[in-house]
Design a protein that fits this description.
Order of helices and strands: HHHHEEEEEEEHEEHEHEEHEHHE
Radius of gyration: 33 Å
Strand order of the largest sheet: 6-5-8-2-3-7
Shape: globular
Structural class: alpha/beta
Number of strands: 14
Strand content: 15-25%
Length: about 375
């Protein structure tokens, strides 16, 4: 049986049953003599023979040549020389067709392989013009700055009307500015709070730190200034229903990748993944994206948000202090392979709950509270 019966076949696949065997038969006749030709002539068409094609068949004829009696080769017949010339020319033509076809086939297979290894399946933004370039920095114009709270600003940068940012979920990008000592470049990673669904712009929500070189630089930018950006930098491929339950531990501006994940999963109506966000802040006024998060929670029954404050004011009805083992068992999903805990925040928080990443930025072993609760390395991801 033909395993590819019914499939569309290329030009070379069509002609090989009708022409190729005849061409190689002529070639064999010229080189190997009457005996080999007669043996081949007793057989039917090429398609019904278990004869190696292309280079494999060529290698077989070379082995025959090496073991054959050279006296059987026609050396003086002009007709044989003429046949050899014709056969060689036609065989060269056939070989060119073969390799041309194989080149196209190889490119097609390479494209298939790239599609298959892409995590999560098809690229939902395939065919879109993407603004980001993962290989080089690109300047984006700042078009608006808005004060978000007492120490954070919202920065909006321009995109062309026909392009999207091109940021996969979950991933970030890096920004660069020559603001270091002696004008040396400083590079920092950020996760925007906008998505590929937003047209004409992308948004950064950045807290200004007293000793933050890049955050202070951003704070003094004005509309019309530009910022160098490169990305995306992939983190963890997030797809609907990839896990039964995903919990997110976020501290301060560590909320941005968590919001990216939640926003991506909740926009899919068929996503049944349970989402739990535990968000740590110093005071109530420090909570970023609170209105947006509460709106998502009220709209989606599979999204729960729990706020923790270090210094709660009177009347606070959320949690206070730290997440302990007892609360962890209550709020977090069980440590199973179909559940996942994401963690992002300042070093002290990371150390307390999950352990920090290794110095080479690999995930490292699970430490802290999550280790005490029984989570393994495969059940925790550190941003």
């Amino acid at each position: 049986e033909d395993p590819n019966e019914g499939d569309k076949k290329s030009f070379f696949h069509i002609i090989d049953n009708h022409i190729t065997f005849y061409l190689y038969k002529m070639f064999a006749k010229s080189l190997l003599g009457r005996k080999i030709f007669q043996n081949a002539n007793q057989r039917s068409s090429f398609g019904k023979l278990n004869i190696p094609k292309g280079n494999q068949y060529k290698n077989n004829t070379q082995r025959n040549y090496a073991t054959s009696n050279t006296k059987s080769f026609p050396t003086s017949s002009s007709s044989s020389l003429k046949s050899f010339g014709i056969a060689a020319a036609v065989a060269a033509f056939g070989t060119a067709l073969y390799f041309s076809d194989m080149t196209a086939y190889a490119k097609e297979e390479e494209a298939k392989d790239k599609k298959e290894v892409r995590k999560g399946g098809e690229d939902p933004n395939e065919g879109e013009k993407k603004a980001l370039n993962p290989k080089e920095f690109k300047a984006f114009e700042l078009i608006e700055v808005a004060e978000y709270n007492h120490n954070s600003n919202l920065y909006r940068f321009k995109l062309e009307d026909d392009e999207i940012l091109g940021l996969d979920v979950a991933s970030c990008f890096v920004v660069k500015a020559n603001i270091g000592e002696d004008g040396k470049p400083v590079i920092r990673p950020y996760t925007p709070i906008s998505s590929n669904d937003d047209k004409g712009h992308f948004d950064l929500l950045v807290k200004t730190y007293e000793n933050g070189v890049m955050s202070k630089h951003l704070a003094q930018l004005k509309p019309g200034d530009t910022l160098e950006v490169k990305g995306p930098i992939p983190k963890l491929a997030i797809k609907p229903n990839m896990k039964k339950h995903i919990a997110m531990l976020a501290g301060g501006t560590g909320i941005t990748p968590m919001y990216q994940v939640a926003n991506e999963l909740l926009k899919h109506n068929d996503s049944k993944t349970e989402l739990t966000l535990i968000f740590f802040n110093v005071t109530e006024k420090d909570i970023l994206l609170r209105e947006t998060l509460d709106k998502l929670a009220s709209k989606h029954s599979n999204f729960k948000v729990h706020y923790f404050l270090d210094k709660p004011e009177e009347g606070w009805n959320g949690y206070s202090g730290f997440l302990n083992k007892e609360l962890g068992k209550k709020l977090l999903p069980e440590p199973k392979d179909d559940n996942l805990v994401l963690v992002c925040g300042p070093p002290g928080m990371m150390k307390a709950y999950s352990g920090e990443k290794n110095k080479d930025f690999t995930q490292g072993e699970v430490q802290g509270l999550l280790k005490d609760l029984g989570y393994t390395k495969d059940q925790v991801y550190k941003f």
